[in-house]
UniProtKB/TrEMBL annotation:
The lineage of its organism: Eukaryota, Metazoa, Ecdysozoa, Nematoda, Chromadorea. Signal peptide: none annotated. The chain crosses the membrane at residues 38-60. Pfam families: SRPRB. It comes from Cylicostephanus goldi. One of its GO terms (molecular function) is GTP binding. It is found in: Endoplasmic reticulum membrane. It comes from the Eukaryota. Keywords: Endoplasmic reticulum, GTP-binding, Membrane, Nucleotide-binding, Receptor, Transmembrane, Transmembrane helix. This is Signal recognition particle receptor subunit beta. It is a single-pass membrane protein. GO terms for cellular component: endoplasmic reticulum membrane. InterPro entries: P-loop_NTPase, Small_GTPase_ARF, SRP_receptor_beta_su.
C-alpha cells in the first residue's frame, strides 16, 4: 500500500516538472525523501474507507430480519402462525384476509414473522410489496402446502410457488412446509417435491414459449433457461422440503 502511494506521488511530481519545463519555468530540484507521515495518512484513510464499506455491507445484510409465510388459502399458514405465537393455542381453522405480524427474538436477534393471506386477489400486492419492494428485508420464505389436498391442487400450488421463486430474486431461501401430515390422504414431502418439480418444469417451458416474440427473439422472464427438464438444483438458492402438522402434540 505504501509503495503504491509513493509511486503515485512520484508520477504526479514528474508530470508537474515536465509541464513547467514546457512553459519555460526553471525549477531547482533538490533530492528529498518521501514524507512517510503523508504516506501513513493516505494508508490510514484507505483502511478507514474499507472498514466503513465492510460495516455498511454487514448492516445491509443484518436488515434481512423477516420470515414470510405464504401459500394457498386453507393451507394452514395462519394456524401455524398462531402456534408460533402461542403454543397452547387450540386448533382452529379460519381464512385471514390481512397480514399477521409476530415479533420474536431468535438467539438474541430481533426477527419478524409475517403471515400473508393466501387469497388470489391479493397475489399482486404480495409480489409488489414483499417480493420486490421489501425483498431486501427477507431472511427466508416459508411456502405452506396442504398435503392432504395436494393431489387436487398441485397445479395451483406449482403456479404460486413459481411466482414466489421468480419474483423474490435469487438469494432468498425457500422452505416448502408440507402441512397437515396427520391426514390419511396427506402426500409425503418427497412426493410433493417430485410432483412440483415436474409441474414447475412444464410451467417454465410454457412461459418461455409464450414470451417468444413474433420476430423470433425471446425475452426470458422464467425461473431457468437450461433448455432441459427443470430440477430444484438448477435454482441459485436453497429450496428445502419439510413435513409438519399444526395440531397439538405434533411439530410445527
Amino acid at each position: 500500500m505504501e509503495q503504491l502511494a509513493k509511486e503515485g506521488v512520484k508520477q504526479m511530481a514528474k508530470e508537474g516538472m515536465e509541464q513547467m519545463a514546457r512553459e519555460g519555468i526553471e525549477v531547482e530540484v533538490k533530492p528529498v525523501g518521501m514524507d512517510h507521515t503523508f504516506v501513513a495518512v493516505i494508508c490510514a484513510i484507505i483502511v478507514v474507507l474499507i472498514t466503513i464499506a465492510f460495516f455498511l455491507l454487514r448492516a445491509l445484510k443484518d436488515k434481512a430480519d423477516t420470515f414470510l409465510m405464504v401459500g394457498l388459502s386453507d393451507a394452514g399458514k395462519t394456524h401455524i402462525f398462531g402456534k408460533l405465537a402461542n403454543r397452547n393455542l387450540e386448533p382452529v381453522t379460519y381464512t385471514s384476509f390481512q397480514e399477521n405480524v409476530l415479533d420474536v427474538d431468535i438467539k438474541g436477534k430481533h426477527m419478524k414473522v409475517v403471515d400473508f393471506p393466501g387469497a388470489e386477489r391479493l397475489r399482486k400486492h404480495l409480489i409488489e410489496k414483499w417480493l420486490k419492494k421489501e425483498r431486501s428485508s427477507l431472511r427466508g420464505i416459508a411456502f405452506v402446502v396442504d398435503s392432504s389436498s395436494f393431489s387436487k391442487r398441485s397445479r395451483d400450488v406449482a403456479e404460486f410457488l413459481y411466482d414466489v421463486a421468480l419474483e423474490s430474486g435469487k438469494k432468498v431461501p425457500i422452505l416448502v412446509a408440507c402441512n397437515k401430515q396427520d391426514h390419511g390422504l396427506a402426500k409425503s414431502s418427497q412426493v410433493i417435491r417430485s410432483s412440483l418439480e415436474k409441474e414447475i418444469g412444464m410451467i417454465n417451458k410454457t412461459r418461455a414459449a409464450a414470451l417468444t416474440t413474433t420476430d423470433g427473439s425471446s425475452f426470458r422472464h422464467t425461473l431457468t433457461d437450461t433448455g432441459g427438464n427443470f430440477a430444484w438444483e438448477d435454482l441459485p438458492r436453497s429450496v428445502e422440503f419439510v413435513e409438519c402438522c399444526a395440531v397439538d402434540g405434533a411439530s410445527v
